[in-house]
Amino acid sequence: MLNRIKVLIVDDHPLFRSGLRQVIADDPRLQLVGETGDGETALKLVEDKKPDVAVLDVNLPGLSGLDLARKLHIQRLPTRVIMLTMHKDEETCNRALDIGARGFVLKENAVEEILKAIVAVADGEHYLSSTISGYLVRRRNRAESLAAKKPGLDDLTKAERRILKLIAEKKTSREIGAELFISPRTVEAHRANICSKLELTGSHSLLQFALENRSAI
Amino acid sequence: MFGAAYFLCAGASSFLSARNSPFVTFWLPAGLFLAVLLSNPTRHWPWLALTVLPANLAYDLLYGTKFEVILFFYCANTVQAVTGAWLVRKFVAERPTLATLNEFFGLVFFAAIFSPMLGAFIGAATLFHFGLSHSFEQSWKTWWGSNAMALLVLTPFILTWPLKSNKPRNYFNQPNKIAEAALLLLGLITFAWYLLASDKGVMSPNKSVLIPLLLWAGLRFGVRGAAAASLFLSLLLAFFTAQFFFGLTPSQISSGEYVFVMQMALAMASLMALIPAIVIGERERTLAELRESEERLKNLSAAAFEGICISENGKILDVNNQFLVMFGCERTNVIGHQIIEFVAPEWRNSIAERIRAGQETIYGHQLLRKDGSIFSAEAQAKMVHIGNQTLRMTALRDVTERKQVEQALRESEEKFSKAFQASPDGICITELETGRFMEVNEGYCRLFNYTREELLGHSGTEMGIFEDAEARSPFVQAVRDTGSVRDMELITYGRGRKKILVQVSAECIELGTHPCIVSVIHDVTERKRTETERDESIAREAQARAEYTFQLIASQEAERMRIARELHDGLSQNLLLIKNRAHLEMSRTKLPDAVRDELQSISNLASQAIAEVRQISRDLHPHQLDLLGLTRALRALIENANESSKIAISGKFDSADDLFQRAAATNVYRVVQESLNNVLKHSHAKKARVTLERDVHELQLRIQDDGCGFNAGRNGGGKGLGLKNIAERVRMLGGKIKLESEPHKGTCIEITIPISAEHD
Hints:
The complex is a heterodimer of chains A (217) and B (760). Chain A has 217 residues and is α/β, with parallel strands linked by helices.
């Protein structure tokens, strides 16, 4: 079988891992290339074995599953990630999806669903446990509304709005800092945050935005 | 009026003189002139002299005298009167009243004898020069005599019977006196008649028969009577002699000798009458004065508070009533007794010595009353020499009462002094202006460790008791403003700059004319330290309690987390395994249906258990906080709440993930969770909103609902524990909590947590 899917299992619970191993080993489509209980080793294994799919427990000692997933995502490694979690909550799920996980499987459904999940993810699809698949719908809606909405003042913190107002008064970072009793460096950091939140580039466009929205700030 | 009188007198004089004689026997105007001058101020003299001129002129012109002669006569009269008056005024008296012999003789000598001599010179020379007289000597004699007699007889009369009598004598109330005067008058007329008619007239040697009558007048009727009597007699004799020349030989008449004789006789008569009268008057006056002064003395001694005693050689001659009252005895028991009998036995020797030595200083001693009681007295004696007697006048004053008052005063002073000295607090009296010590007590000295001598006369600032003048001024100002100060706390310094905290109460008083401050100073250093220690220990205790609470919460949090982890790592995992195993078995082929069903039910049970554990675990510890950060955890919290209740909860959270350590983030999370629990459980709200705003220096968390609210003043009532927990956590975050709620008006909890702006 040339096209067996290479799978890496990362879970700190040996019994649970053995259960998973058994399921995966029993499936001829899959090939278990490694298993480990901690995030650091997992990262190394991903780099070495280049698995197609990494099944990561969210809660890991040391580098957490989410952190690991993010790292893989940032490093643009081809390994696709399925998050395993005990936590049946939307935020965790969203977070996982945000950082590039393709699958999100509740541990309680692991044996039933893990094979489907691995196959689907390896195929380039997303997979969520059936009990939380509703999240995906909501997430999609929210993503759409988020995409429709232009970034604006609402995205800014109060501190950022305060600084924006001072920018509208054409004050320099030094002056703003002196007025708010913070260092100019902090003001600069805030400016950078504001720019990124408002998707602005350069201080000129920031000033322009500040002046345009002066009355609303 | 003076001029008219002068004219009348001159007319009268002519009646008293022999007709066809160039001589005027008795020139009355001279007496009038002098008397008027002496009765008026010197500055009026020129006018008076001028008034005389027309009178003189009128009279002499009627008389047929030549004009130039009249001028000389006038000159003579004026010179004589002015000189006489001036001399009398200069050497005798301003206005003689003939009260004394001195005045009388002065008047006689200057006015009656000397000045007419001058006038006589001028007058006689005039007469002689114009051929009106053949003998200068005779003319001079007559002139002098007539004037001298007038002056001697009329002047005393006018001077003693002044027109304006300031002492009207009520003669009319004394019928005896009037009868006597009438008798005397009759006598005078009888004897004068007898003298003129029977014998040789004025030349008779029996003129002395008149003397008893004149003496009678002088002795019985005083100076006035004598003057009146002699004037009356003179007028009588002069008139009759001049008009009728009784008993005179023609030679006597022609020579004019009789005139002189008569003048002399009358002068003598006048002296005879006046001198005894003056002497008697003088003596009477002296006696009256003496009586008066004696009376005054008696009144004085009777009115005196002091007992007065007059003694000679220790024997009492007289005492006043006060003395008798003082000693409680009768006059008869005192007069003639020895002074020493009235002195307390133990004082007798010293007092006897004093009396013997005639000491006049004030001395205190004790005296003995008749009833044997003893009292304190003060005495002053004065030795008086009267004739050959040496009297001792002693004034005594009972000082028992004063002594008692003094004693009481001394005792009270002593009491106050003792209280002042014995007070455990420091007491000082200082001048308000300068702050100089006027008096300090032992307590004060002890407190500041200075001696009284070191302090007196110096100010607290000088002594370094006050840091500087500034340190004293609020105290002084307070005393000035309100007159007193109560329990003012001041920092003072004792010797060696030992810091002493004191509490001062002070009162402004007047000592003499100085405004002063009496201050009572209480050392509160020890008390303050105790207070400070107590405050510190309270603070420490509160701190410890806070720490304990903190630890309690932290350990509770840790414990929850541990349990949550145990549940997650142990129980949950095992349940997962059970469920997964069951599924694993089920996936095997050729299983009997019954076994498959059994496995399915095991899986379901495990699923249920997992859900339960998950719920417990989530309540125990929000795994999102660790996993996703504060903002997402809060968002999850809202979503969960929304799912599990009908309240529409919205939320907006500024990103705050980078702000807190895990413990602090947990506290923020728990605050929101607890508040939200309150909203869910108690508010019956329709809507609620949770916001987290991140400002530059602070984080603001607001949980607001439109529910039933509660009375915020009653500190939450049934929600007490929840709010307490929130408040405790906010305190741990160093923040502030503001709760606004009113029944039916919803609730708003606003929490402000300071954050470090320099977070990146």
